[in-house]
Structure formats: C-alpha cells, structure tokens
Amino acid sequence: MAKAYEEIADELRAQIRAGRLGPGDRLPSESDLVRTTGRSGPTVQQALRVLQAEGLIEKQHGRGTFVRRPRTPIERTNARHQWEKDRARAPERQRLGTGATERDTGLGVDDLVFHAAYREIGASKEIAAALGVAEGTALVERTYRTRYSAERNPFSLVTSLLIRDLVQQNPDLLDETKEPWPGGTWNQLLTVGIEIDRVEERVTARPPTVEEADELGLPPGTSVLVLRKTLYDTDDRIVEMSDVTLPGDRTEMLFTTHLERW
Amino acid sequence: MAKAYEEIADELRAQIRAGRLGPGDRLPSESDLVRTTGRSGPTVQQALRVLQAEGLIEKQHGRGTFVRRPRTPIERTNARHQWEKDRARAPERQRLGTGATERDTGLGVDDLVFHAAYREIGASKEIAAALGVAEGTALVERTYRTRYSAERNPFSLVTSLLIRDLVQQNPDLLDETKEPWPGGTWNQLLTVGIEIDRVEERVTARPPTVEEADELGLPPGTSVLVLRKTLYDTDDRIVEMSDVTLPGDRTEMLFTTHLERW
DNA sequence: GAGTGGTCTAGACCACTGT
DNA sequence: CAGTGGTCTAGACCACTCC
Question: Which residues form the HTH gntR-type domain (chains A, B) (predicted)?
C-alpha cells in the first residue's frame, strides 16, 4: 500500500498534469485537505512539500498554495561571444549604450540596474589550478549583480577573476568606480593589448545554496545553472575566469556549434 | 530569533563547510540531535530535510545520515559534434567499436549497456512548432538509455525525434532492432543523403520529476540538466531533435566557442 | 477577524541495517 | 536485537494576508 502523503501528492500531481489545476490556480487549503483526505495536518503538509520540491507548486504564506507559473525566460547564447569581441573595438559612443546583457534580454540600459565591486585576493589552490597559475598569485576579484529595474532580485550572480599582473598596466582596470565599463571586460582586456581567441564554458546544475536562493529570490523547488567561463587569448593564456550562477527556472542557454562541410 | 530547525541546520551546515564533517562522514543520529539540542524529533528532521534539499547530506534508512560524496563526473563537450560528423563517414569497421558516449566517458563498448526503442507518433502542437512542421506530421520517436555495466541506473534519458518522410526511404531507419547503429544518428542520416551543418543545444535546469529521479536513481537534493539538441542540415532544415535529461550532480557540459581573429 | 500556511511538541509505531 | 531513519497522529500557537 502506498504511503498516505504519496497518495495525496499523486492525486494533486495528476490534477496538475491533466490541467484540471492550471498555472496560478489555488490548491485546496491545507485544512480542506485534512478534511477531505481524513489525514493529519503534518501528513498533508508533507504531501505538499513533495510537490514543492518538484517545482510544481508554490506556497504563499497567508494566501494559499498555488500551481507554479513558468517565469519569463532569459536567453543566453554563445553567439554573444563573437558579438562581444566585435563590440570591444567599436567606437566608445557605440559601446556606451549597450552591453551583452542588454543584447540577451532585448532591453535598454535604463531597464537594468548594474552593480560591481572589486577586491584583490590571492589565488587559492583550487582557483590557481583552474587558472594555471601559482598558488597565491595576486588576482582581481570582481563581483557583478544585474537586475531588472522592475524586480527586486538580480537574475545572475557573477564572480570574475583577472590576473593582476596581466592587467595592472592600466590602473583603471583595478578601479571599480570605472564600472560599468563601456565595452565590458573584452574592451578592458583590449586596453592592455589582449585579444580573445576562444571561450570555454562549463555548465552544471544543482540546488541553490541558501545564500544563492536568497540573493536570487528563488523559491524552493528550483535549481541553479552554474557556468564557469574561461577566456583564452591568442597566446593560449587564460586571461579571465568567471563563475556565473543563473536561476534554472528562467534561464535558457543556447549553444550553436557550426561544423565543417564535407 | 531564528527558528529552531534553522539553528540546527545552520550549525550542521557550518560544520560541513568547515570540513569538520567531510564527505562520507556520518552525522549524529536523529535521536542524538534530539538529546543535544533539546528539540523534538520532527524539528530535528526538518533541519535535516533542509540540508538534504541543498544536496549536502544523504539519508540512508537504517544506517544513518551522511555528508554527500561528489559523484564521478561525466564530461560532455561540443567538440563531440565535429567528431560525430567525421565518424559518420568513417569505414564501418571503425564505426563499430566506438560511439560518442564511449568518447565522452573514455570507456569501451563493453563497459556500457545500451537500449533503444522506436515508436511512430504524430507531432503534438508543441513539438510541431519546435520542429517547424505541421501538427500531426508523422514522426519516429526513439528513446535511448545508456548505463555503465557496473551501475544500475542509466546516466542519461534520451528521446529523439525524426521526421518520417525524411528518413523512410531507408527502411532500416524505422527498425529498432538495427540498434545500436554503427556511427549513430549521423550515419543513419547520411544513408538518406543528409549532411549536418550545425547543432543547436538549449540548456535549462530544474528539479527532477519523480519518474526521472526514479529512472536515473537520483537522491533528493539533486537537479537535472535538460538539453534540447537540434540538428540542422545543409539546407537549413531541422532533421533531428532530441531531448536529453542528465543528472546535474555528475554531468559537466563543456562548450568551446572559437572566435574570428582581428 | 477569518482564513491561510509555518513552526513546534510528545509520542507512537513501522521499516530497514547491521551485529 | 539494538539502532537508525520513515511515517503518522492530535493538537497548540504563531505569522501573514485580505477583507
């Protein structure tokens, strides 16, 4: 015999999948479910917890439990890289009004709120290995938060690392007050004579940490996409590495790979 | 004041992050925690549930609660596409002994167990839109499961769709008993004169459904990576679309984008 | 104030693991 | 068999939302 909370969860899940309960609809209240199922409060709650962990429902304290509504997706393509490279050499006037995020979202600079902070750190063992430098090497750690001006939470958490020796010949690159930098990282690197040859992106997925869920405003039952982006210059050196955390329920990454013709 | 279960969870999380509790270590038993914290059983359980949802711990009925151990990752690169394209034209002898999965995992054919099933379906509205065909168009739906022979669960769930009209001139392509096909889908398509020009991959992340968690053997507190791969031929037609579900805790996808030189 | 979900208690019994 | 986590009950009180 199935467990009581599973029976309740199965019943509700079936109703959602069949469309009898659609996105945004309110589920029966917990006390209703206690009455109709003849089960205790905690048992009903466990059933709802299961559905919440699956990302099917969302509880709203004091209002009720609702079928989760899909969020408007943000698309992020790898065509952006060639676009960013080209833009790095564009005249400043052109670089000012637009960034890669604006390109992804189709929005203007005014619709987005941008925040950056710089800090100098020494490379930890793990980071040193990933960057191919010695442990303790001086790095510039830059953290970025970007959000829609209409929303409370950022839609990505970015930590970027530069090797200080490579960039310090331009002191502006160590100064966070110069952000947002027209033309972004790619233009910053150009000012110290660096051209990017290729981008490597490593993607994994996992549940958010409490801190990530908090910063991104993620409800229970969502995942994050974790992207580690590495920029290689034309001498095959790693010149930047960044970790990007994206909400899994609203991010779609599109990678296009072109192949040689026969 | 913080909630009781959060205090307990915070304390244990801090111990794990500090390394005082390492991967594979057993946590204090629930009854121990009831004694040491002076809280009730359900409260302690809720604290552990929080950590489980974060993917930090794993409960084993009758044995105890353990710090989650990272699983051996499977890497999947987009360099595989050019490799698959090249292999599609290789002599059969060469195609027999190796596939893209073997390439990704570095294993031989004997270490992997392969299963395929074919079915004919009509295109649903959603699928028709994604494939760019009319609703109801005849499709060949192929489902694949591949697992390590040493493990019980497959490491990916694949559903592939072909447009029947495009492939039926070679009846072997409608016959699941011809699987595993040497040279895979790319060679199958070559037999009906199709050359692939580019691959589009859309990646998102979410918690697994119950069915996915069951098939992939995923413990609570893991996510799945969902990949929708679309193959375009040299006439810019969509010739295959597949949905791949991968365990987020053991899959790393690597995408390399090469850029034009200045 | 009525209705909702959130937290917590005290305790019972079951199911699984290892000795 | 002892120890572990899994399920379930009956009920209390709190916190939030909306009217």
Answer: 2-70
Range of the domain at B41: 4-67
Task: Please report whether residue A261 resides in a domain.
Answer: no
Q: Report which of B187, B195, B184, B203 is spatially closest to residue B232, judged by C-alpha positions.
A: B195
Q: Which residue of B has its CA nearest to A257?
A: B199
CB-CB neighbors (< 8 A) of B253 in chain A: 202-204
Q: Are residues B179 and B131 in the same domain?
A: yes
pLDDT at A1 over 70: no
User: With a threshold of 0.90, does the pTM exceed it?
Assistant: yes
The rounded distance, in Å, linking the Cα atoms of A157 and A247 is: 9
Q: Which residue of A has its CA nearest to B251?
A: A204
One domain, residues B57 and B149: no
Q: Are residues A107 and A128 in the same domain?
A: yes
Gap from A40 CA to C10 C1', in Å?
15
CATH number, domain at A24? 1.10.10.10
- Domain count of chain A? 2
Question: Is A44 found in the same domain as A161?
Answer: no
CATH classification at residue B171? 3.40.1410.10
Question: Are residues A259 and B78, on separate chains, in Cβ contact within 8 Å?
Answer: no
Residues of B in Cβ contact (< 8 Å) with A11: none
CB-based contact A261 B78, cutoff 8 Å:
no
Q: What is the pLDDT of residues A120-176, one digit of tens each?
A: 999 999 999 999 999 999 999 999 999 888 888 999 999 999 999 999 999 999 999
Cβ neighbours of A255 in B, within 8 Å: 78, 200-203, 255, 257
C-alpha span between B262 and B260 (Å, rounded): 7
- A152: DSSP letter: S
- Decide: A231 and A201 in contact? Cβ < 8 Å: no
- A67 Cβ neighbours under 8 A, 6+ residues apart: A16, A21, A22, A23, A24, A25, A27, A56, A57, A58
